[in-house]
UniProtKB/TrEMBL annotation, chain A:
NCBIfam families: sigma70-ECF. This is RNA polymerase sigma-70 factor (ECF subfamily). It comes from the Bacteria. It comes from Mesonia algae. Residues 21-87, 127-171 form the RNA polymerase sigma-70 region domain. GO terms for molecular function: DNA binding; sigma factor activity. Belongs to the sigma-70 factor family. ECF subfamily. InterPro entries: RNA_pol_sigma-70-like, RNA_pol_sigma-70_dom, RNA_pol_sigma70_r2, RNA_pol_sigma70_r4, RNA_pol_sigma_r2, RNA_pol_sigma_r3/r4-like, WH-like_DNA-bd_sf. Keywords: DNA-binding, Sigma factor, Transcription, Transcription regulation. GO terms for biological process: DNA-templated transcription initiation. The keyword Transcription applies.
From TrEMBL, chain B:
One of its GO terms (biological process) is regulation of translation. It comes from Mesonia algae. The keyword Transit peptide does not apply. Keywords: Coiled coil, Membrane, Transmembrane, Transmembrane helix. One of its GO terms (cellular component) is plasma membrane. This is Anti-sigma-K factor rskA. Residues 28-55, 115-149 form a coiled coil. Pfam families: RskA_C (PF10099). One of its GO terms (molecular function) is sigma factor antagonist activity.
Length: 176, 268
Protein backbone atom coordinates (compact mmCIF):
# COMPACT_ATOMS: atom_id res chain seq x y z
CA UNK A 1 0.00 0.00 0.00
CA UNK A 2 1.22 3.46 -0.84
CA UNK A 3 1.77 5.21 2.50
CA UNK A 4 -0.40 8.25 1.73
CA UNK A 5 -0.38 9.64 5.27
CA UNK A 6 3.38 9.20 5.46
CA UNK A 7 3.81 11.12 2.21
CA UNK A 8 1.52 13.87 3.52
CA UNK A 9 3.67 14.07 6.67
CA UNK A 10 6.81 14.23 4.51
CA UNK A 11 5.26 17.12 2.61
CA UNK A 12 4.64 18.78 5.99
CA UNK A 13 8.41 18.51 6.59
CA UNK A 14 8.16 15.97 9.37
CA UNK A 15 11.67 14.52 9.93
CA UNK A 16 10.21 11.26 11.28
CA UNK A 17 8.26 10.74 8.06
CA UNK A 18 11.46 11.38 6.11
CA UNK A 19 13.18 8.62 8.10
CA UNK A 20 10.37 6.18 7.37
CA UNK A 21 10.43 7.05 3.66
CA UNK A 22 14.19 6.52 3.67
CA UNK A 23 13.86 3.13 5.33
CA UNK A 24 11.22 2.11 2.84
CA UNK A 25 12.82 3.21 -0.43
CA UNK A 26 16.52 3.90 0.06
CA UNK A 27 17.88 0.42 -0.59
CA UNK A 28 15.75 -0.06 -3.70
CA UNK A 29 16.77 3.33 -5.11
CA UNK A 30 20.37 2.57 -4.18
CA UNK A 31 20.10 -0.59 -6.32
CA UNK A 32 18.76 1.42 -9.25
CA UNK A 33 21.50 4.05 -8.90
CA UNK A 34 24.24 1.47 -8.49
CA UNK A 35 23.05 -0.41 -11.59
CA UNK A 36 23.54 2.77 -13.63
CA UNK A 37 26.86 4.07 -12.23
CA UNK A 38 28.42 0.76 -11.04
CA UNK A 39 30.46 2.55 -8.40
CA UNK A 40 29.52 2.21 -4.75
CA UNK A 41 31.05 5.51 -3.62
CA UNK A 42 29.45 7.44 -6.47
CA UNK A 43 26.14 5.64 -5.87
CA UNK A 44 26.24 6.76 -2.22
CA UNK A 45 26.79 10.36 -3.28
CA UNK A 46 23.91 10.21 -5.73
CA UNK A 47 21.63 8.56 -3.16
CA UNK A 48 22.31 11.43 -0.76
CA UNK A 49 21.47 13.98 -3.45
CA UNK A 50 18.31 12.06 -4.34
CA UNK A 51 16.99 12.09 -0.76
CA UNK A 52 17.88 15.74 -0.36
CA UNK A 53 15.78 16.41 -3.47
CA UNK A 54 12.98 14.20 -2.12
CA UNK A 55 12.92 16.29 1.08
CA UNK A 56 13.20 19.64 -0.64
CA UNK A 57 10.75 18.92 -3.47
CA UNK A 58 8.28 16.66 -1.63
CA UNK A 59 5.43 19.12 -2.12
CA UNK A 60 5.90 18.83 -5.90
CA UNK A 61 4.70 15.24 -5.73
CA UNK A 62 1.04 14.80 -6.55
CA UNK A 63 -0.63 11.39 -6.64
CA UNK A 64 -2.64 12.30 -9.74
CA UNK A 65 0.61 12.21 -11.72
CA UNK A 66 1.68 8.78 -10.56
CA UNK A 67 3.05 6.66 -7.72
CA UNK A 68 5.33 8.22 -5.11
CA UNK A 69 7.68 5.28 -5.75
CA UNK A 70 7.75 6.18 -9.45
CA UNK A 71 8.36 9.84 -8.65
CA UNK A 72 11.34 8.95 -6.43
CA UNK A 73 12.53 6.42 -9.01
CA UNK A 74 12.59 9.15 -11.66
CA UNK A 75 14.68 11.43 -9.43
CA UNK A 76 17.15 8.60 -8.78
CA UNK A 77 17.47 7.54 -12.43
CA UNK A 78 17.80 11.13 -13.68
CA UNK A 79 20.46 11.97 -11.07
CA UNK A 80 22.41 8.82 -11.96
CA UNK A 81 22.18 9.35 -15.73
CA UNK A 82 23.30 12.97 -15.24
CA UNK A 83 26.44 11.63 -13.55
CA UNK A 84 27.16 9.17 -16.36
CA UNK A 85 27.05 12.06 -18.84
CA UNK A 86 29.94 13.84 -17.13
CA UNK A 87 33.28 13.62 -18.96
CA UNK A 88 35.06 12.27 -15.91
CA UNK A 89 32.59 9.43 -15.63
CA UNK A 90 32.80 8.57 -19.33
CA UNK A 91 36.59 8.35 -19.15
CA UNK A 92 36.44 6.14 -16.10
CA UNK A 93 33.71 3.77 -17.15
CA UNK A 94 33.48 2.40 -20.66
CA UNK A 95 30.97 0.01 -22.13
CA UNK A 96 28.85 0.20 -19.02
CA UNK A 97 25.65 0.05 -20.98
CA UNK A 98 26.46 -3.53 -21.85
CA UNK A 99 26.01 -4.56 -18.21
CA UNK A 100 22.54 -5.49 -17.00
CA UNK A 101 21.11 -5.50 -13.50
CA UNK A 102 20.98 -9.26 -13.94
CA UNK A 103 24.80 -9.42 -13.83
CA UNK A 104 24.76 -7.72 -10.45
CA UNK A 105 22.19 -10.17 -9.14
CA UNK A 106 24.10 -13.16 -10.49
CA UNK A 107 27.31 -12.09 -8.77
CA UNK A 108 25.62 -11.23 -5.51
CA UNK A 109 25.48 -13.74 -2.68
CA UNK A 110 23.91 -11.86 0.22
CA UNK A 111 20.63 -10.01 0.05
CA UNK A 112 18.74 -7.72 2.39
CA UNK A 113 16.24 -9.32 4.76
CA UNK A 114 13.39 -7.66 2.92
CA UNK A 115 14.36 -9.48 -0.27
CA UNK A 116 13.31 -12.99 -1.17
CA UNK A 117 16.85 -14.03 -2.09
CA UNK A 118 15.94 -17.54 -3.24
CA UNK A 119 13.12 -16.13 -5.35
CA UNK A 120 15.42 -13.57 -6.97
CA UNK A 121 18.03 -16.23 -7.78
CA UNK A 122 15.33 -18.46 -9.24
CA UNK A 123 13.93 -15.57 -11.23
CA UNK A 124 17.28 -14.83 -12.83
CA UNK A 125 17.62 -18.43 -13.93
CA UNK A 126 14.28 -18.58 -15.69
CA UNK A 127 14.42 -15.04 -17.04
CA UNK A 128 13.94 -14.78 -20.77
CA UNK A 129 16.57 -12.71 -22.61
CA UNK A 130 14.01 -10.12 -23.77
CA UNK A 131 12.84 -9.72 -20.17
CA UNK A 132 16.38 -8.86 -19.15
CA UNK A 133 16.41 -6.09 -21.70
CA UNK A 134 12.90 -4.79 -21.14
CA UNK A 135 13.16 -4.58 -17.35
CA UNK A 136 16.61 -3.08 -17.66
CA UNK A 137 15.41 -0.30 -19.95
CA UNK A 138 11.92 0.37 -18.58
CA UNK A 139 12.60 0.01 -14.90
CA UNK A 140 16.31 0.45 -14.26
CA UNK A 141 17.14 2.98 -16.98
CA UNK A 142 13.83 4.82 -17.10
CA UNK A 143 13.26 4.58 -20.81
CA UNK A 144 9.76 5.48 -21.94
CA UNK A 145 7.64 2.95 -23.73
CA UNK A 146 8.43 4.68 -27.05
CA UNK A 147 12.18 4.82 -26.35
CA UNK A 148 12.23 1.15 -25.39
CA UNK A 149 10.34 0.22 -28.54
CA UNK A 150 12.84 2.13 -30.59
CA UNK A 151 15.87 0.74 -28.73
CA UNK A 152 14.69 -2.85 -29.09
CA UNK A 153 13.23 -2.30 -32.54
CA UNK A 154 9.92 -3.67 -31.32
CA UNK A 155 6.35 -2.35 -31.76
CA UNK A 156 4.92 -0.24 -28.91
CA UNK A 157 2.15 -2.72 -28.12
CA UNK A 158 4.63 -5.56 -27.86
CA UNK A 159 6.66 -3.63 -25.29
CA UNK A 160 3.50 -3.28 -23.20
CA UNK A 161 2.57 -6.96 -23.22
CA UNK A 162 6.15 -8.15 -22.76
CA UNK A 163 6.75 -5.86 -19.78
CA UNK A 164 3.57 -7.31 -18.32
CA UNK A 165 4.78 -10.86 -18.84
CA UNK A 166 8.30 -10.24 -17.57
CA UNK A 167 7.18 -8.55 -14.37
CA UNK A 168 4.42 -11.10 -13.91
CA UNK A 169 6.95 -13.94 -13.85
CA UNK A 170 8.93 -12.08 -11.17
CA UNK A 171 5.79 -11.63 -9.12
CA UNK A 172 4.87 -15.28 -9.49
CA UNK A 173 8.21 -16.39 -8.09
CA UNK A 174 8.26 -13.87 -5.23
CA UNK A 175 4.70 -14.68 -4.21
CA UNK A 176 5.44 -18.41 -4.06
CA UNK B 1 -14.56 -0.67 -18.41
CA UNK B 2 -13.26 -4.19 -18.25
CA UNK B 3 -10.94 -4.08 -15.26
CA UNK B 4 -9.32 -7.42 -15.90
CA UNK B 5 -8.53 -6.48 -19.47
CA UNK B 6 -7.12 -3.16 -18.31
CA UNK B 7 -4.88 -4.89 -15.81
CA UNK B 8 -3.57 -7.49 -18.24
CA UNK B 9 -2.89 -4.87 -20.94
CA UNK B 10 0.47 -4.14 -19.30
CA UNK B 11 -0.25 -0.43 -18.84
CA UNK B 12 0.10 -0.70 -15.04
CA UNK B 13 3.66 -2.07 -15.30
CA UNK B 14 4.57 0.83 -17.57
CA UNK B 15 2.84 3.18 -15.12
CA UNK B 16 4.90 1.99 -12.17
CA UNK B 17 8.13 2.09 -14.22
CA UNK B 18 7.31 5.65 -15.24
CA UNK B 19 7.43 4.73 -18.90
CA UNK B 20 4.07 6.30 -19.82
CA UNK B 21 3.50 9.83 -21.04
CA UNK B 22 2.21 12.38 -18.56
CA UNK B 23 -1.28 12.16 -20.04
CA UNK B 24 -1.38 8.37 -19.83
CA UNK B 25 -0.11 8.41 -16.24
CA UNK B 26 -2.86 10.83 -15.18
CA UNK B 27 -5.45 8.53 -16.68
CA UNK B 28 -4.09 5.51 -14.81
CA UNK B 29 -4.01 7.52 -11.57
CA UNK B 30 -7.69 8.28 -12.03
CA UNK B 31 -8.59 4.65 -12.70
CA UNK B 32 -6.54 3.56 -9.69
CA UNK B 33 -8.55 5.83 -7.42
CA UNK B 34 -11.78 4.45 -8.79
CA UNK B 35 -11.00 0.71 -8.70
CA UNK B 36 -9.41 -0.93 -5.68
CA UNK B 37 -8.48 -4.00 -7.79
CA UNK B 38 -6.35 -1.79 -10.02
CA UNK B 39 -4.74 -0.14 -7.01
CA UNK B 40 -3.97 -3.56 -5.54
CA UNK B 41 -2.42 -4.69 -8.81
CA UNK B 42 -0.27 -1.55 -8.97
CA UNK B 43 0.93 -2.16 -5.41
CA UNK B 44 1.97 -5.70 -6.24
CA UNK B 45 3.88 -4.58 -9.32
CA UNK B 46 5.54 -1.87 -7.26
CA UNK B 47 6.50 -4.31 -4.49
CA UNK B 48 8.06 -6.81 -6.86
CA UNK B 49 10.09 -4.16 -8.68
CA UNK B 50 11.06 -2.65 -5.35
CA UNK B 51 12.40 -6.04 -4.29
CA UNK B 52 14.22 -6.49 -7.55
CA UNK B 53 16.20 -3.28 -7.30
CA UNK B 54 16.71 -3.77 -3.57
CA UNK B 55 18.38 -7.03 -4.51
CA UNK B 56 20.60 -5.07 -6.89
CA UNK B 57 21.81 -2.71 -4.12
CA UNK B 58 25.39 -3.49 -3.01
CA UNK B 59 24.35 -3.11 0.65
CA UNK B 60 21.78 -1.39 2.83
CA UNK B 61 22.67 2.33 2.78
CA UNK B 62 21.12 3.00 6.19
CA UNK B 63 24.33 4.62 7.48
CA UNK B 64 23.81 7.46 4.99
CA UNK B 65 20.60 8.64 6.66
CA UNK B 66 22.48 10.48 9.42
CA UNK B 67 24.68 12.23 6.84
CA UNK B 68 21.67 13.26 4.76
CA UNK B 69 19.79 14.52 7.82
CA UNK B 70 22.84 16.46 8.84
CA UNK B 71 23.03 18.05 5.39
CA UNK B 72 19.34 18.93 5.66
CA UNK B 73 19.84 20.25 9.23
CA UNK B 74 17.21 17.84 10.52
CA UNK B 75 17.40 17.09 14.22
CA UNK B 76 18.27 13.46 14.71
CA UNK B 77 16.00 12.66 17.65
CA UNK B 78 16.70 8.96 17.77
CA UNK B 79 20.44 9.32 18.12
CA UNK B 80 21.19 12.62 19.78
CA UNK B 81 18.93 12.17 22.80
CA UNK B 82 20.87 9.33 24.43
CA UNK B 83 24.12 11.14 23.68
CA UNK B 84 22.72 14.29 25.25
CA UNK B 85 21.67 12.29 28.28
CA UNK B 86 25.23 11.08 28.62
CA UNK B 87 26.44 14.62 28.24
CA UNK B 88 24.07 15.71 30.97
CA UNK B 89 25.40 13.01 33.23
CA UNK B 90 29.00 13.93 32.60
CA UNK B 91 28.06 17.57 32.97
CA UNK B 92 26.54 16.90 36.38
CA UNK B 93 29.65 15.01 37.42
CA UNK B 94 31.73 17.86 36.06
CA UNK B 95 29.65 20.45 37.92
CA UNK B 96 29.89 18.47 41.16
CA UNK B 97 33.62 18.20 40.66
CA UNK B 98 34.01 21.90 40.09
CA UNK B 99 31.68 22.77 42.96
CA UNK B 100 33.65 20.49 45.30
CA UNK B 101 36.94 22.02 44.20
CA UNK B 102 35.64 25.54 44.66
CA UNK B 103 34.16 24.67 48.07
CA UNK B 104 37.50 23.16 49.11
CA UNK B 105 39.36 26.23 47.89
CA UNK B 106 37.00 28.54 49.78
CA UNK B 107 37.41 26.33 52.86
CA UNK B 108 41.19 26.39 52.64
CA UNK B 109 41.18 30.12 52.05
CA UNK B 110 38.97 30.81 55.09
CA UNK B 111 41.11 28.50 57.26
CA UNK B 112 44.18 30.40 56.12
CA UNK B 113 42.41 33.68 56.76
CA UNK B 114 41.38 32.51 60.26
CA UNK B 115 44.93 31.41 60.95
CA UNK B 116 46.29 34.81 59.96
CA UNK B 117 43.63 36.54 62.04
CA UNK B 118 44.50 34.39 65.06
CA UNK B 119 48.19 35.07 64.64
CA UNK B 120 47.48 38.79 64.46
CA UNK B 121 45.26 38.60 67.56
CA UNK B 122 48.00 36.72 69.37
CA UNK B 123 50.51 39.44 68.49
CA UNK B 124 48.14 42.12 69.78
CA UNK B 125 47.55 40.16 72.99
CA UNK B 126 51.28 39.62 73.44
CA UNK B 127 51.93 43.33 72.96
CA UNK B 128 49.19 44.18 75.46
CA UNK B 129 50.65 41.67 77.87
CA UNK B 130 54.12 43.21 77.55
CA UNK B 131 52.65 46.65 78.04
CA UNK B 132 50.75 45.53 81.14
CA UNK B 133 53.82 43.82 82.53
CA UNK B 134 55.68 47.08 82.04
CA UNK B 135 52.89 48.99 83.74
CA UNK B 136 52.90 46.51 86.64
CA UNK B 137 56.67 46.89 86.95
CA UNK B 138 56.33 50.64 86.84
CA UNK B 139 53.58 50.52 89.42
CA UNK B 140 55.74 48.33 91.64
CA UNK B 141 58.65 50.72 91.27
CA UNK B 142 56.40 53.68 91.90
CA UNK B 143 54.84 52.01 94.94
CA UNK B 144 58.25 51.16 96.33
CA UNK B 145 59.40 54.72 95.84
CA UNK B 146 56.26 56.04 97.50
CA UNK B 147 56.67 53.66 100.42
CA UNK B 148 60.22 54.88 100.75
CA UNK B 149 59.04 58.48 100.69
CA UNK B 150 56.34 57.70 103.23
CA UNK B 151 58.91 56.10 105.49
CA UNK B 152 61.04 59.22 105.24
CA UNK B 153 58.17 61.56 106.03
CA UNK B 154 57.14 59.48 109.05
CA UNK B 155 60.57 59.59 110.47
CA UNK B 156 60.36 61.33 113.86
CA UNK B 157 63.62 63.17 113.29
CA UNK B 158 62.22 64.76 110.19
CA UNK B 159 61.53 68.51 110.33
CA UNK B 160 58.86 69.64 107.88
CA UNK B 161 58.92 73.21 106.64
CA UNK B 162 55.96 74.37 104.55
CA UNK B 163 56.89 76.92 101.90
CA UNK B 164 54.00 79.20 100.93
CA UNK B 165 53.47 80.84 97.60
CA UNK B 166 54.89 84.31 97.11
CA UNK B 167 53.96 87.29 94.91
CA UNK B 168 54.98 85.72 91.58
CA UNK B 169 52.97 82.58 92.23
CA UNK B 170 50.47 82.89 95.06
CA UNK B 171 48.99 79.47 94.28
CA UNK B 172 52.36 77.77 94.52
CA UNK B 173 53.26 75.62 97.51
CA UNK B 174 56.17 73.43 98.49
CA UNK B 175 57.46 71.61 101.53
CA UNK B 176 60.93 70.84 102.79
CA UNK B 177 61.47 67.71 104.87
CA UNK B 178 64.77 68.10 106.59
CA UNK B 179 66.56 65.20 108.21
CA UNK B 180 69.06 67.02 110.40
CA UNK B 181 70.90 63.83 111.33
CA UNK B 182 71.65 62.67 107.81
CA UNK B 183 71.81 66.31 106.65
CA UNK B 184 69.43 65.62 103.79
CA UNK B 185 66.45 67.63 102.62
CA UNK B 186 63.56 66.26 100.61
CA UNK B 187 61.87 68.93 98.55
CA UNK B 188 58.23 68.17 97.87
CA UNK B 189 57.56 70.31 94.80
CA UNK B 190 54.27 68.76 93.74
CA UNK B 191 52.43 72.09 93.78
CA UNK B 192 55.00 74.16 91.97
CA UNK B 193 54.18 75.11 88.40
CA UNK B 194 56.25 73.38 85.70
CA UNK B 195 59.20 75.72 84.95
CA UNK B 196 59.31 77.27 81.45
CA UNK B 197 61.90 76.18 78.90
CA UNK B 198 65.46 77.20 79.88
CA UNK B 199 64.60 77.76 83.55
CA UNK B 200 65.08 75.69 86.69
CA UNK B 201 64.04 75.96 90.32
CA UNK B 202 66.87 76.60 92.73
CA UNK B 203 66.52 75.87 96.44
CA UNK B 204 68.08 78.19 98.93
CA UNK B 205 68.89 77.78 102.62
CA UNK B 206 68.50 81.05 104.47
CA UNK B 207 69.80 82.42 107.73
CA UNK B 208 67.76 85.40 108.80
CA UNK B 209 69.92 87.84 110.75
CA UNK B 210 71.50 89.03 108.52
CA UNK B 211 69.61 87.45 105.55
CA UNK B 212 72.09 85.16 103.87
CA UNK B 213 71.01 82.78 101.13
CA UNK B 214 73.03 79.65 100.38
CA UNK B 215 72.24 77.47 97.42
CA UNK B 216 71.61 73.88 98.29
CA UNK B 217 70.80 72.67 94.79
CA UNK B 218 68.65 72.67 91.67
CA UNK B 219 65.41 70.78 91.01
CA UNK B 220 66.77 69.37 87.71
CA UNK B 221 64.59 67.29 85.36
CA UNK B 222 61.52 68.67 87.14
CA UNK B 223 58.92 67.38 84.67
CA UNK B 224 60.44 63.89 84.51
CA UNK B 225 59.99 63.16 88.20
CA UNK B 226 56.48 61.88 88.80
CA UNK B 227 56.51 62.31 92.57
CA UNK B 228 58.21 65.69 92.39
CA UNK B 229 60.24 64.87 95.47
CA UNK B 230 63.85 65.86 95.17
CA UNK B 231 66.60 64.91 97.63
CA UNK B 232 69.36 67.48 98.28
CA UNK B 233 72.26 67.81 100.76
CA UNK B 234 71.96 70.54 103.40
CA UNK B 235 74.88 71.06 105.78
CA UNK B 236 73.66 74.50 106.85
CA UNK B 237 71.83 75.37 110.04
CA UNK B 238 69.03 76.82 108.03
CA UNK B 239 66.40 79.12 109.51
CA UNK B 240 64.30 79.29 106.35
CA UNK B 241 64.08 77.80 102.85
CA UNK B 242 63.18 79.52 99.62
CA UNK B 243 62.73 78.41 96.01
CA UNK B 244 63.41 80.76 93.13
CA UNK B 245 63.15 80.32 89.37
CA UNK B 246 66.59 80.75 87.84
CA UNK B 247 68.18 80.31 84.44
CA UNK B 248 69.21 76.73 83.73
CA UNK B 249 72.30 75.81 85.72
CA UNK B 250 71.36 78.08 88.61
CA UNK B 251 72.60 81.46 89.86
CA UNK B 252 75.16 82.67 92.45
CA UNK B 253 72.50 84.54 94.38
CA UNK B 254 68.72 84.21 94.31
CA UNK B 255 66.71 86.40 91.96
CA UNK B 256 64.27 87.77 94.51
CA UNK B 257 61.69 88.82 91.85
CA UNK B 258 61.38 85.15 90.95
CA UNK B 259 60.89 83.89 94.53
CA UNK B 260 58.13 81.32 94.24
CA UNK B 261 57.86 79.91 97.74
CA UNK B 262 59.29 80.74 101.13
CA UNK B 263 58.92 79.26 104.60
CA UNK B 264 60.71 79.51 107.97
CA UNK B 265 61.85 76.64 110.16
CA UNK B 266 59.86 76.53 113.38
CA UNK B 267 62.00 76.64 116.42
CA UNK B 268 60.58 74.29 118.99
Amino acid sequence: MQPDSLIAELQNKNPKAFERIYERYSESLFGVIYNIVRDQHLAEEILQDVFIKIWNNAEAYNDSKGRFFTWALNIARNASIDKTRSKAFKNKKKNLTADFYVDILEEKNSFANSVDAIGIKKYIKILKPYCKQIIELLYFKGYTQAETAEELDTPLGTIKTRSRNCIQSLRDILVK
Amino acid sequence: MNIQEYISSGILELYVCGALTEEESKEVSNELKKYPEIEKEVEQIENSLNQLSTAAAPYNPNQLLAIIKNKLHLVDNSKTIPIRKENKKTNIVLYIGWAASIALLIGLFSVLQDRNQLRENLNVVNAQKAKMEQQINDAHASAEKKEELLAIFRDKNMVTVPLDGQEVAPEAYAAVHWDKQSKKVYIDAKNLPTPPEGKEYQVWSLTLDPLTPTSIGLLSNFSDDENKVFMLENINSSQAFGITLEPKGGSESPTMEQLYTLGTVKTS
